[in-house]
DNA sequence: ATGAAAGCGCTAACAG
DNA sequence: CTGTTAGCGCTTTCAT
């Protein structure tokens, strides 16, 4: 045998037609026990493995799902992608991964790639090109943490509630001079704006002054340290900080410890990774597992045309995890 | 137009043959400028996107690479996968991701899936089924951190050297009562054994007593805390620990701080994530980026039959990063 | 219960 | 420079 055996080889070996082999493979139609056995024997003998690509071409369904996220290297996305892939593989879907690195150009290239490879659907957590670009694909798509759209389901956690929860927790501890650190706002991903609004609303309701800083370069540690330093210098009297992501919060916590200042910090995300590395950090926990489950459920419903098509915006509750 | 336009539709629209369209698409053969323009116009008009699946079937090459790792949710693998995917996408390869969760059964299922989907090659960092199982695939494969094999290239960092480096660093600080914490040894992934040997060799060379603990459940935080507690209780006099992974080291560091004991800790991995979250942790840094680059280079060479086929075991140098 | 034939969308000889 | 033809490996009518 030169190359890999194909269905035709199995058929010849078993002395039946390709059709029959296909039927055995897919459990379709009626097959006599004897034939089935003979075919299965041949499959085993030849160590035959069906070519899913050929099958995909014929049935016009690949069972591929594209996952478009900034990077698997960030714990929030890494863990979310893990959950999503896990649930999808359970349902016999396969995952093509795309790390956009927050670059619009890469995101566009990936979108084309996924379409060219006939994915059955996509879950998009990146946010550098307009969601309209995706709509043109006329494909089942679920977005995570994106601007609400008429045609695309969006799953996110309760960012506004999380912002409130974090701020209230600091207030409950008797703190009053609380600042907020956030990323630069992004039109396509309003989640950080929601967190900010939660913080500012609570501060206003309590008649307290508030101040929000917007950090750029969300993935660069050195830059964060620089900027945090100057923020600490500018705010010698603060006693609390709500920082809208755990990685930055962890850095701030470590700086506070070194400066021996008395500042309480609440972060956001609550991934296993950061909780493990920085158990003393209080944080707002996003329900990663539930978000993944919901996103997959919605996507598969769209793919199978069972989508009721009414509700398009899903907000999942967050919880506060107190640092130890 | 009912479904997606296909190459034939473009041909008809442009008034040429399918072959010509294909040639324009793939820049093959000689095409008159006029024809090319007409075809490109048709492509744009119809918003045509080539079907890569059909193409793959014909050329018997998918440009798919399977990535088999325990989980994208762990920073080491999440960051490594990010690097690998990044380099591969640059070369127009696409990545199918598999989270084996340390389960042999899942790993086997994924292997079958990848073969069925005609991947051009695989990079394997999971280690629950024998590497021989992969050899049967007769496919270009590169392994990361696995038992050396005659037929499969293995990329790893200098685990033995890292173990030595970590231990020597503790000794250089005047510490002498140093224990080592490791995972349970695994036949297929000898890297932790190497780290252990590095530690034990150095201790022996200095005539010092040594003790290695083997932790199970490498990804479960609560279990780790339990076991670490009892280790701390059993060792009231230690002044140093070499812990063979950063996540566990971070937990230990946090416990040490709470107990106010004076114990220096050196971890292993040195991911961006953990370095960001726990900058005060001293650790042995694995060259993630270089490992990814080398693994991809080797894989693509095998795929393109440029593999010289001599050296099969690649060990990359580690560095020590001092905590701040 | 089984087989023959057509074709999923594309590309690569081979002609012209 | 362009078109005709055959076929990648599989599944599915439509016969028998």
TrEMBL record, chains A, B:
PROSITE patterns for the chain: HTH_LACI_1, HTH_LACI_2
Keyword Transcription regulation, does the record have it?
yes
Q: Domain named HTH lacI-type: which ranges?
A: 5-59
For this UniProt record, the keywords arranged alphabetically read as follows: DNA-binding, Repressor, Transcription, Transcription regulation
Gene3D superfamilies named among the record's database cross-references? 3.40.50.2300, lambda repressor-like DNA-binding domains
Any Pfam family matching the protein: LacI
Q: Does the keyword Transcription apply?
A: yes
- What molecular function terms (GO) are annotated for this protein? DNA-binding transcription factor activity; transcription cis-regulatory region binding
List, alphabetically, the SUPFAM superfamilies matched: lambda repressor-like DNA-binding domains, Periplasmic binding protein-like I
What is the name attached to this protein's record? Transcriptional regulator, LacI family
- Name the species this protein comes from: Sporolactobacillus nakayamae
Q: Lineage of the native species?
A: Bacteria, Bacillati, Bacillota, Bacilli, Bacillales
């Amino acid at each position: 045998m030169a190359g890999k055996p194909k269905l035709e080889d199995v058929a010849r070996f078993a002395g039946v037609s390709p059709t029959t082999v296909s039927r055995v493979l897919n459990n379709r139609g009626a097959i006599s026990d004897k034939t089935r056995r003979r075919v299965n024997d041949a499959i085993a003998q030849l160590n035959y493995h069906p070519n899913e690509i050929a099958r995909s071409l014929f049935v016009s369904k690949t069972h591929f799902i594209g996952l478009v996220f900034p990077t698997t290297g960030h714990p929030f996305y890494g863990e979310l992608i893990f959950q999503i892939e896990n649930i999808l593989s359970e349902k016999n879907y396969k995952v093509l991964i795309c790390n956009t690195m927050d670059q619009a150009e890469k995101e566009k290239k990936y979108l084309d790639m996924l379409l060219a490879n006939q994915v059955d659907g996509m879950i998009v957590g990146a946010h550098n090109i307009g969601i309209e670009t995706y709509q043109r694909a006329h494909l089942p798509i679920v977005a995570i943490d994106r601007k609400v759209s008429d045609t695309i389901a969006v799953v996110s956690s309760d960012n506004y509630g999380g912002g409130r929860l974090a701020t209230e927790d600091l207030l409950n501890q008797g703190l009053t001079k609380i600042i907020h650190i956030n990323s630069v706002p992004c039109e396509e991903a309003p989640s950080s704006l929601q967190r900010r609004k939660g913080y500012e609303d609570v501060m206003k309701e309590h008649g307290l002054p508030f101040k929000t800083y917007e950090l750029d370069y969300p993935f660069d540690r050195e830059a964060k340290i620089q900027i945090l330093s100057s923020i600490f210098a500018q705010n010698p009297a603060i006693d609390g900080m709500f920082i809208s992501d755990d990685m930055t919060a962890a850095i701030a916590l470590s700086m506070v410890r070194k400066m021996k200042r008395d500042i309480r910090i609440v972060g956001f995300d609550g991934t296993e990774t950061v909780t493990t590395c920085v158990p003393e950090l209080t944080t707002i926990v996003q329900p990663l597992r539930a978000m993944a489950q919901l996103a997959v459920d919605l996507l598969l419903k769209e793919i199978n045309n069972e989508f009721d098509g009414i509700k398009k915006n899903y907000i999942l509750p967050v919880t506060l995890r107190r640092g130890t």
